[in-house]
Design a protein that fits this description.
The longest helix is centred in the first third of the chain and has 32 residues. The chain has 14 helices and no strands. It comes from Cohnella cellulosilytica. Keywords: Cell membrane, Membrane, Transmembrane, Transmembrane helix, Transport.
């Protein structure tokens, strides 16, 4: 039995393999650099495999900043990221349900204007948001990051709206016949149908907020409230020549993201690919 191999298929797979190597290469170098000593990491020409694996770099990175607890930074990032995820799923799904299933004046115009917010750079609204957060008394607290992050997510609203448009209207009509109100239809009928999109949005939001640096830098000043990106920035300032400790801290910082991505990769793909383009 002869197996025919098309040149196009070979080129496609070769391109995918090359792209995968390019994407994974920096992460591999990051992990290997975290296991080197100071002399080897600055060696020219550089070496990929460490001559001796310094596993204690990870332990040292956790205690390299005596005035700041890496564990507390983990806790802060976790509380802020999870809080934003839960709030985003609630507010975005409610707004998406309104835009997808309810009929009201200027609905499409309002939706287009809402999506236009994505075109506005964050730096443009920085000063107004800072003044509002200061008036609320939220400066140097987690609320300064959680509340704005959960209330405005145009991409999340768009993603869930497109998915909700694919939910058959017959399900809502059957619920109305059974006496369900709008809230019950949203919570018990529509929301369970958009599980893949909710999972994808939750994972993408968690990854984005865990890595966020600019907003915590602006609103947080007490080291006890610092998130993981801010702590890593202090590594660069205080240990500017000790790259192995910086790389070890970075590896520890992205481990939760790696776990979340591996666990939720299926839901990300399913949520994006199954999202309808109707409407």
């Amino acid at each position: 039995m002869r197996i025919s191999i098309r040149p196009g298929t070979v080129a496609l797979h070769a391109g995918l393999i090359l792209g995968s190597v390019i994407m994974v290469g920096p992460f591999v170098w990051l992990v290997l650099a975290a296991l080197k000593d100071l002399d080897e990491i600055y060696r020219v020409p550089p070496t990929w495999i460490p001559e001796q694996f310094h596993w204690d770099n990870f332990r040292k990175s956790l205690t390299a900043l005596p005035s700041i607890s890496f564990g507390r930074a983990y806790l802060n990032s976790g509380i802020i990221s999870i809080g934003i995820v839960l709030g985003t799923l609630l507010t975005s799904s409610m707004a998406a349900y309104a835009f997808a299933k309810l009929r009201f004046a200027f609905r499409d115009v309002i939706f287009a204007a809402f999506l236009a917010v994505m075109m506005v750079p964050d730096i443009v609204t920085l000063i107004p948001k800072y003044l509002m957060i200061r008036e609320f008394g939220w400066l140097d607290t987690r609320w300064a990051l959680i509340v704005p992050g959960m209330l405005l997510n145009p991409f999340g609203v768009f993603l869930l709206r497109q998915f909700m448009l694919t939910v058959p209207r017959e399900l809502e009509e059957a619920a109305i016949i059974d006496g369900a109100n709008r809230w019950q239809i949203y919570w018990r009928v529509v929301l369970p149908q958009v599980g893949p999109a909710l999972s994808a949005l939750g994972i993408l939001t968690f990854v984005g907020k865990w890595n966020e640096f600019f907003a915590p830098l602006i609103y947080l000043s007490n080291p006890r409230n610092f998130t993981v990106p801010l702590v890593l920035n202090l590594f660069r300032g205080q240990y500017v020549t000790d790259l192995p400790l910086m790389m070890a801290g970075t590896v520890i910082a992205f481990l939760p993201l790696l776990i979340v991505y591996i666990a939720g990769q299926k839901y990300i793909i399913e949520g994006i690919t199954l999202t309808g383009i109707k409407g």
